[in-house]
Structures are given as structure tokens and as C-alpha cells.
Amino acid sequence: MRDYQWLHEYCLNRFGSAAALEARLPQPKSDAELRALSDDRYLSLIALRVFRAGLKHSLVDAKWPAFEEVFFGFDPEKVVLMGAEHLERLMQDARLIRHLGKLKSVPRNAQFVLDVQKDKGSFGALIADWPVTDIVGLWKYLAKHGSQLGGLSAPRFLRMVGKDTFIPSDDMVAALKAQNIIDKAPTSQKDLALVQAAFNEWQAQSGRPLCQLSMMLSYTVNH
């Protein structure tokens, strides 16, 4: 794999200046900001990610105020009490995206948030404290303990809340393949470990957050 210096020079050549490059790069939230986000907001964002999957984001976002209403502002202690009959009634609400499987995931993820709250004090503490040098471990944890957070949903949720992460988008996977780090989309633990190790090396060389390295890498292909 090429080193960070090559990646940086490639992006500088593409955008013409350091200022033009920096303007395009995201900034992760601080640990303090991640801790400060309340558990109802984490549950709302988990649910938003689940409903966005496979759908046009603007469509889901336009309906989100109704979701906030029917799910009690995503207060996990209230949402967790919603039973099957309640969810069946929501299936009749034309303001919502009426997908029973996704609706069922909301109280399940409320229980997940409450479990983490009991263990860590808050969901934000879990997110803030998880080391980015093992961000794929956090993806696995979210997919295992949450509902409908497999695939790209966990890393995309983390990007939504501001936790530093890379996302194996099509462009990024193509770039990783071009660097001979992997030969297919990373789904196995072995391939995920190889990708994590590559990002850890680039981060050590550059001091940049993973989300910036991820975007810079995606700029090296198909543009």
C-alpha cells in the first residue's frame, strides 16, 4: 500500500491547494460532544439510519417529525414499552414509512440503548470511549446487539452522530483494492482487520481522523 504522503499529494494535485482540499474534508465530533448527546437522540439517529437504508434519504427525513411524534421523542424508556399491537396501529399511519420490520426495530433498539445506559451510564459514553483504532469492533458490537445495524448501517450511523469512522463505500473499496489491501468488499473479520490496520498506519503517519482519510482515499478513484 502507498503511504500517506502519496495520498496527500494526490489529493493536493486534484484540488489544486491545501485550502481547497481541507474545505472538502469532514470533522468528527469530540469525545465531549459525543458524550453530551442524549440517549433519545442516539435512538432517534439509530432509527433514522434504519429507515434510510434502501430508501431516498430526503423522503425519510421529510417524514421524520411524524416519527418523533409517534415514538414519544424517542425516549427509550417509553419506546421500549411499545408492544406488537401498538406497532400494528402505526402500520395504519399514512404519515410514516409503514415497514413492519423496521418499525419493530425501534423498541428493540430502545432496549439496546437502555442496556448500554445501565452498563456505561449513557449510550454516548460507549460511543465516545470506543477507540477509533478498533472502529470495526464498534461496527461489530452495534450489529450484534442492535437491530438492523448490519452491513454499512453501523458505520453510516456512526458518521451521522459524528464518531470518527471510515465507511467502506464503493469508491473506498475500489481504492483499497487498488492499494492491494483487499480484493473484495470487506465483510470478513480478516478483511476488516486488514482495512483497520491500513487506516491505523495512515493515521499514525498523518495525525488525521479516519473520516478525512476515508474521503481522501475515495478521491483517488472514479473521479
The ordered string of helix (H) and strand (E) elements is HHHHHHHHHHHHHH
Task: Specify the CATH class of one domain.
Answer: Mainly Alpha
Which class do the helix and strand fractions yield?
mainly alpha
Number of strands: 0
What percent of the residues sit in helical stretches (DSSP H or I)? 55-70%
Sheet bearing the most strands, described? none
General form: elongated
Q: What is the H level of CATH, i.e. the homologous superfamily of one domain? A: Hypothetical protein, domain 2
CATH topology of one domain: Endonuclease III, domain 1
Tell me the strand percentage band. Answer: under 5%
Low-confidence stretches: none
User: Average pLDDT value?
Assistant: 97
Task: State the CATH architecture of one domain.
Answer: Orthogonal Bundle
Please report the distance between the alpha carbons of the first and last residues: 20 Å
* Number of separate helices: 14
Concise synopsis of the structure shown:
With 223 residues, this protein is mostly helical. The chain has helices at residues 4-15, 18-24, 31-36, 39-52, 57-70, 76-79, 84-90, 100-120, 123-129, 135-145, 153-161, 170-178, 189-206, 210-218.
Q: Can you walk me through this structure?
A:
- The chain is built from 14 helices and no strands.
- The chain has a domain at 32-161: Endonuclease III, domain 1, CATH 1.10.340.30.
- It is elongated, with a radius of gyration of 19 Å.
- The protein is mainly alpha-helical.
- Helix 4 (39-52) packs across helix 5 (57-70), helix 4 (39-52) packs antiparallel against helix 8 (100-120) and helix 4 packs across helix 11 (153-161).
